[in-house]
Structures are given as structure tokens and as C-alpha cells.
Design brief:
heterodimer; A: 158 residues; mainly beta; 5-stranded antiparallel sheet; 3-stranded antiparallel sheet; 2 helices; B: 387 residues; alpha/beta; Peroxisomal Thiolase, Chain A, domain 1; 2 domains; two-stranded antiparallel ribbon; 14 helices; 12 strands
Chain lengths: 158, 387
């Protein structure tokens, strides 16, 4: 039997030949977090959209988001991690201004994760696309020295 | 609209089965026909099949005709597959219901089937990731347990829900499934065993999660007129509601401890049935994880918001309580073969309302509710009654 040439994997194809969201991924490679903005609705989206869910316009602008946010909720998965992913997995919902961004924390000690702590963007490489270009996903990590609300409160009350 | 009733029901055994996709659906289909001696496959005018992962787990699409051929059915009015992740089975029942209520068919079978366990279990786990948003969630390795763990974390923070309360849901449902010969788990489990079981996604431990299970379930629906000819104990669909508020975790209500879509779906079903939450004698709810059952008590109106933890601790969701929740053992005890789950809930409602549930029989059961979800923002509710 001949070899199966390539399996579909859990990572999106990110180049402009495959998606209109290519500018998002291009920016991510240089550690910038973009999203779409609908000028008609004055609405920022997350995740980035191809049409505005409010007015269905496809004329959306790219805007840059701050690369830091705070942890709204998190969980640490020890068991049942899908193949190809590290263990444990730390998942978090991060507040970036008015948006909530679902992400994974990387290069982070599980014991240090707390609600309210500040995290910053740290994109992760996940494998090449069929053209040989590296693909990235928008992971975050705990911000060093950047104490979030919870930590600040703790320092004050200690 | 015409009234519609369940006239037949059957299950395959649930578990890690040495059986393929087609064998599982054949087992449930045969059992279903065995429950209706006056019907043969030739009488079935429509077939709807709920199935989520056959393309990945069985290298098979084109599911409804496969099932029809397997069971000797030649649909003349309706043939379709429903895929709505974990709620696929109940989505199928709603299609069949609407078709019959509208007068487009008189007798329709709904099958739910899933073959999830594979020789390489890593592949089985990876497949579950197809149910979340690939581009923005599965790409991080997300599957169901961490999603619901986020809800548990926020429910604990907001309402003081405890690990012990979560564990009580597991103990109750495993106790119930120990009386269910079709269930994946039939040995029961102690509180100690639950709180000492290994952590899956904090705070959800192994026994607070439904397992990866193979299985199939089938029901036959008929118009009221045909139902009364077929059986002297039809089980009527009294109400149904569905609401979808979002797909990805980022898009949901910021408070994952509240599931307004579930409240909306239940409200629509109660209104249609002309009943209130306290009229429900038993409920099969979607306890994919213990936190989901606690939130279900609240959103279905069995207890006030935030009091789901004490509700289970006080035994109010068990036999001799306010409402028996998950008498068959739920997803935690029976297992969760995705497409089959909603149909299996209907099978339990059929048995309970006909007084055929054996050791699990809920006394004086007149009204039963089933709740099936596919993520925290997507819910479907059915209400069944003896009349």
C-alpha cells in the first residue's frame, strides 16, 4: 500500500492562498495580535471574522490589540491530552480590554496560574503547511513582573 | 399540528464494544423493532440517523442509507442524517417529530449511533477535538473536558460549589447505572473513589466525566392516530425547545456558570407542554461532566440559580427527592456515544412512562424531560408524557 501523503491536522492553513485571515497569521509571526474591526458597526471582533456578525459586511479593517491581558478563567488538563500536544495543557480565557480570548498558556508553571494574573502573547509554532511555511497559533504566557489585579491585592493585604 | 408519540424503543449495549458501526446500529434497530410486534421495517416511512464522527472513526459517511439498508428499511417520506455534536440524537428526534406533526409522514424511526473507541485511543481523543472550533480552540489541543472545567471553575468561584458536590453527582449517576444492564459502568462508585480519581481537567476528576463509549439507540415515532393502532401505551411528545447562543468558548456569555440558552430551550418546551418545572417527575439531563448536571438543575428550574450543589447533596435530584435526575445513569454511568445519547434518553423516557424501567422505575412517572447539549451554549429539551 502506498504511503498516505498527508493527514488533515487540527491547525488551520494560514497562507493567503488558503484564507482571508492571512494578515492575522502574518502579524502573529512578528508577535503582534491583530483582529478585525467593522467600521460600520464600530465593533471589534474576537476571533477575527470574515464577515461582521452584526451587519454581514465583508469590508473589515485589521487593527492591533494590546499583547497583554488578564486571566478570566483557566483549567489545567493532566489526562486525555490529544496526541501531539504537551502535557499538562493549561487553557485560559484571557480578557483583552472588552474581548475574551480563549487560548493556551505556554512556558508557564501550572502552580503559578491564578485568575486575574497578567499574561502576554507568546505565539507557538505548530508545524509547517504543505508549502513548507511554519504555522503559528496565538498562545500566551504569564507576564514576568507584570502583576495582575489579584497579585496586586495580595501584595497590599500581605 | 398533529400530536406525535413514541411507539417503540431499543438500545444496544453501551461500552467499549467489539463491534463495528453497522453492527451497533443493527443491534439497537433490532431491539427497537422487537418492542413493537405490530411493526416491520417495511412500515417505516422515514429514517433519521444521528451520528457525529463516522467519517473519522469508521471512514464512513452516507450514514442514513447505510442504516436503512442494514435494517431492511426503504424510506419513502424522509431520509436524513443529523450532526449536531453531542445533541445529534435529539436533533434527529425533533426533525422526525416536525415531519409527522406536519403530516408529511406517519411513522419515522430515529437512530443514534457512534463507534468512538479505536485501536489507537490517541486518535479517538484527537477526533473529539473536531467538535470545538478548529481554528481558534482545537488548535490549542482543546477537547470537551477543559471547556466544561472552565464552567466548573467559575461556578465554584461564584456560588461556592464544592468538589464534594460535584462528586455526589457522579455517585448518584453511577448508582443509577448499576441498575441498568445497558450501561457502560454497572459497578457503582464511592464518594472516596470519585474524589481520589485522577484529575482530568481541574477541578473535574475521572469519575466526574462521561467516558468514550460505543453504542446505538433507536426509537419509532408515529402520528397519534397510527400510534394508538400500534400500541396501547404510546408516549407522547408534549413539548420541545432548542436554543443556540454561540459556538466557540470566546463567544459565549462571559459567565460560563450560567447557560441562558438552556433556560430558553427549557422555557419553550415547558410553554408548549403547558407545564412547569415542578411538574417533571424525572429528567434525563446531559451530565457529560458533573458540573453540567448541577447547572442543569438551575437552568431547568428545578432549583434557584447557584443552588445546584446543595440540591444534589440533599438528595433532591434522586429517588424520594423533588425530581429523579438521570434514572438510567446519565452520560456518566451509561457512557456517551455522541449521536446515540439523545436517542437513548428518549428510550429511557419511553420505558419510564410505560412503567417498564424495572429496578430503576420512577414511581408514578407521568412527565419526563430530556435535555441534550452540544457545548455550553447549545441546548435542546424534550418533554414526554403518558398523555
Amino acid at each position: 500500500m502506498s504511503e498516505y501523503f498527508r493527514a488533515v491536522d487540527p491547525f488551520p492553513l494560514q497562507g493567503s492562498q488558503n484564507t482571508r485571515l492571512a494578515p492575522f497569521y502574518e502579524a502573529l509571526r512578528s508577535q503582534k495580535l491583530l483582529t478585525t474591526f467593522c467600521p460600520q458597526c464600530a465593533l471589534r471582533h474576537w476571533p477575527p471574522r470574515v464577515v461582521c456578525p452584526d451587519c454581514l459586511s465583508d469590508r473589515l479593517d485589521w487593527i492591533e490589540l494590546p499583547d497583554q491581558g488578564t486571566i478570566h478563567a483557566y483549567t489545567i488538563q493532566d489526562t486525555g491530552v490529544p496526541p501531539g500536544f504537551p502535557r499538562p495543557l493549561i487553557f485560559a480565557v484571557v480578557r483583552v480590554e472588552e474581548l475574551r480570548i480563549f487560548t493556551r498558556l505556554v512556558e508557564t508553571e501550572p502552580g503559578q496560574v491564578e485568575r486575574g494574573r497578567t499574561v502576554r502573547l507568546l505565539p507557538s509554532a505548530v508545524g509547517q503547511d504543505p508549502e513548507g511555511d511554519e504555522r503559528y497559533v496565538p498562545t500566551f504566557t504569564l507576564a514576568r513582573g507584570g502583576a495582575g489585579e489579584t497579585s496586586l491585592v495580595k501584595i497590599v493585604t500581605a | 399540528m398533529r400530536r406525535v408519540a413514541l411507539v417503540g424503543a431499543g438500545l444496544s449495549r453501551f461500552g467499549v464494544r467489539a463491534a463495528g458501526f453497522r453492527e451497533l446500529l443493527a443491534e439497537a434497530g433490532r431491539a427497537c423493532f422487537a418492542s413493537v410486534p405490530h411493526l416491520t421495517p417495511k412500515d417505516i416511512e422515514g429514517l433519521v440517523v444521528g451520528a457525529v464522527l463516522p467519517e473519522r472513526a469508521a471512514f464512513q459517511s452516507h450514514i442514513a442509507p447505510l442504516a436503512a439498508e442494514t435494517l431492511g428499511i426503504q424510506p419513502s417520506k424522509l431520509s436524513a442524517r443529523t450532526e449536531h455534536m453531542c445533541a445529534s440524537g435529539t436533533a434527529g428526534i425533533r426533525y422526525a417529530y416536525a415531519f409527522i406533526a406536519a403530516g408529511l409522514a406517519d411513522i419515522v424511526m430515529v437512530l443514534g449511533v457512534e463507534k468512538l473507541n479505536l485501536p489507537n485511543m490517541g486518535e479517538a481523543v484527537l477526533n473529539m477535538g473536531t467538535g470545538v472550533d478548529r481554528d481558534w480552540e482545537a488548535c490549542f489541543g482543546l477537547t470537551a473536558p477543559p471547556s466544561f472545567a472552565l464552567a466548573a471553575q467559575l461556578h465554584m468561584a461564584e456560588y461556592g460549589t464544592t468538589e464534594e458536590q460535584l462528586a455526589h453527582v457522579a455517585v448518584k449517576n453511577h448508582t443509577h447505572s448499576s441498575k441498568n444492564p445497558y450501561a457502560h459502568f454497572q459497578n457503582g462508585v464511592t464518594l472516596d473513589a470519585v474524589v481520589c480519581s485522577r484529575m482530568i481537567a481541574s477541578p473535574l476528576r475521572l469519575f466526574m466525566c462521561s467516558p468514550i463509549t460505543d453504542g446505538a439507540a433507536a426509537v419509532i415515532l408515529a402520528s397519534e392516530e397510527r400510534a394508538k393502532e400500534i400500541t396501547d401505551k404510546p408516549v407522547f411528545i408534549r413539548g420541545t425547545g432548542q436554543a443556540v447562543h454561540g459556538f466557540s468558548v470566546s463567544s459565549l456569555d462571559p459567565d460560563y456558570a450560567s447557560w441562558p440558552a438552556m433556560k430558553q430551550a427549557a422555557g419553550a418546551a415547558y410553554t408548549m407542554a403547558g407545564i412547569a418545572a415542578n411538574d417533571v417527575d424525572f429528567a434525563e439531563v446531559h451530565d457529560c461532566f458533573a458540573i453540567a448536571e448541577i447547572i442543569a438543575y438551575e437552568e431547568l428550574g428545578f432549583c434557584p440559580k447557584g443552588e445546584g450543589g446543595p440540591f444534589v447533596m440533599e438528595g433532591r435530584s434522586d429517588y424520594d427527592g423533588d425530581v429523579v435526575v438521570n434514572p438510567r445513569g446519565g452520560l456518566m454511568g451509561c457512557g456517551h456515544p455522541l449521536g446515540a445519547t439523545g436517542v437513548a434518553q428518549a428510550v429511557e423516557a419511553f420505558w419510564q412512562l410505560r412503567g417498564e424501567a424495572g429496578e430503576r422505575q420512577v414511581p408514578e412517572a407521568h412527565i419526563g424531560l430530556t435535555h441534550n447539549n452540544s457545548g455550553m451554549g447549545e441546548h435542546v429539551v424534550m418533554i414526554y408524557g403518558r398523555e
